[in-house]
TrEMBL record:
Catalyzes two steps in the biosynthesis of coenzyme A. In the first step cysteine is conjugated to 4'-phosphopantothenate to form 4-phosphopantothenoylcysteine, in the latter compound is decarboxylated to form 4'-phosphopantotheine. It catalyses: (R)-4'-phosphopantothenate + L-cysteine + CTP = N-[(R)-4-phosphopantothenoyl]-L-cysteine + CMP + diphosphate + H(+); N-[(R)-4-phosphopantothenoyl]-L-cysteine + H(+) = (R)-4'-phosphopantetheine + CO2. It holds the Pfam family DFP. This is Coenzyme A biosynthesis bifunctional protein CoaBC. Its EC number is 4.1.1.36, 6.3.2.5. One of its GO terms (molecular function) is phosphopantothenoylcysteine decarboxylase activity. It comes from Spiroplasma litorale. InterPro entries: CoaB-like_sf, CoaBC, DNA/pantothenate-metab_flavo_C, Flavin_trans-like, Flavoprotein. Keywords: Decarboxylase, Flavoprotein, FMN, Ligase, Lyase.
Length: 389
């Protein structure tokens, strides 16, 4: 049975957490963690809450590796309901002065955040900054609150999800991508560079957001995921599973290290199609090179094509960035590069929070979707891969 840490903070929506606990506990083992302010809004009379255990351990000087920290290693998911302005500010600042914030800091598994607060609080600049930071963390899933009547009587954004909606989200979280759970997945994303000299280069405006949304959704959903990323507009930590490569050649070299051991390979990086023929060794000085009026280009190495040449049993997914949804062009690319699936997206979605795609499979099935947030598009792509593998 999956184990959920239900973290309840001190907002008015905490009054609904009893109902949420009842719903979740019918399917999952649920640990209840409450902040001190949460007790003002809700009571759990028939169960022990872990904040009580934390206080007991702390005051009895038994704070070493005990029950309060064990749940961080014996659980599968954190659900913060509601996530208040104060809690969001605390965890985004790295503060962990109670069990609710400590679990956020120490847990490596995913955390579902359900913010709820007054509209003015939700739309102020500090909250926007904290939201952006937390949303970029690979193990955090931020669920926008609803628009509706608030506790103040006003109408606006900030209303909590209903408990039944949270249950549906949690159920979907655990059911998603069942066919991927034993798979090793390799993905590239971001933009690459073509150097002109030691300091100047040609690149593009890809933000890397689409690929990173896919990466975020795959954490804890597959056997292993390796990402090779180029330049991007995100704050991504480099480690053994997240590898930086800023040119096509470097990206191919890094992907080759993991290609043979990968079951699924997703190539959504915005690579340079052309590169400078002769890179100037040093910095081109403006005063010394007054006749420097042109750059000679050649085709860059095609990472996806090179990977297709040595394809064995990998499920290979490519992306096609185009001015319009040219299905014939996408079919040719799919055949030429031995793809199992290709995702067509449009130039005008670059550096956007949204994307509109069509998916074409090697069996010539075409799937079209409306314009959605990139996090939702990532889910669609992975659901389709999950079906096809």
């Amino acid at each position: 049975m999956k184990v959920i840490n239900l973290i309840i903070t001190g907002g008015i929506a905490a009054s609904k957490s009893n109902h949420l606990y009842d719903l979740l506990s019918k399917k999952y083992k649920v640990n209840v963690i409450m902040t001190k302010n949460a007790h003002k809004f809700v009571k759990f009379n028939n169960i022990n809450t872990y904040d009580d255990i934390f206080d007991k351990e702390f005051y009895e000087d038994n704070h070493h590796y005990a029950d309060h920290i064990k749940i961080a290693f014996n659980s599968d998911l954190n659900v913060v309901y509601p996530a208040t302005y104060n809690y969001i500010g605390k965890v985004s600042s790295g503060i962990s002065d109670d069990l609710a914030s400590l679990l956020f800091a120490v847990c490596k598994f995913d955390c579902l955040l359900f913010p709820s607060m007054n509209t003015n609080m939700y739309t102020n600049k500090t909250l926007e900054k904290n939201k952006k930071y937390l949303s970029n963390l690979s193990n955090v899933f931020w669920y926008e609150p609803k628009y509706g009547r608030l506790a103040s009587g006003d109408y606006g954004i900030g209303r909590a999800h209903e408990p039944i909606e949270v249950l549906e989200i949690v159920d979907k979280y655990f059911k998603d991508y069942n066919n991927l759970k034993n798979k090793n997945i390799l993905i590239n994303f971001g933009r690459t560079r073509s150097y002109i000299d030691k300091v100047r280069y040609i690149t593009n405006s890809s933000s890397g957001k689409m690929g990173y949304e896919i990466v975020k959704k795959l954490y804890n959903k597959c056997n292993n995921i390796i990402s090779v990323f180029g330049d991007n507009d995100l704050n991504i930590t480099q480690n053994e599973n997240n590898i930086y490569a800023n040119t096509n050649v470097e990206m191919l070299e890094q992907m080759m290290k993991y290609y043979n051991s990968s079951d699924i390979v997703i190539c959504c990086a915005a690579l340079t199609d052309y590169e400078v023929c002769e890179v100037y060794q040093g910095k081109i000085e403006k005063r010394d090179n007054k006749n420097f009026d042109k750059i000679s280009l050649k085709e860059s190495i095609d990472v996806l094509k090179e990977l297709s040449k040595i394809k064995q049993n990998q499920f290979l997914v490519g992306f096609s960035l185009a001015n319009d949804f040219d299905i014939d062009k996408a079919k040719n690319k799919l055949i030429e590069k031995k793809l199992d699936m290709i995702v067509i997206n449009l130039v005008d979605t670059l550096d956007s929070e949204y994307n509109k795609i069509k998916i074409l499979t090697k069996s010539n099935d075409i799937y079209e979707f409306e314009k959605l947030k990139k996090s939702e598009v990532a889910d669609i792509i992975l659901q389709k891969i999950n079906q096809l593998v």
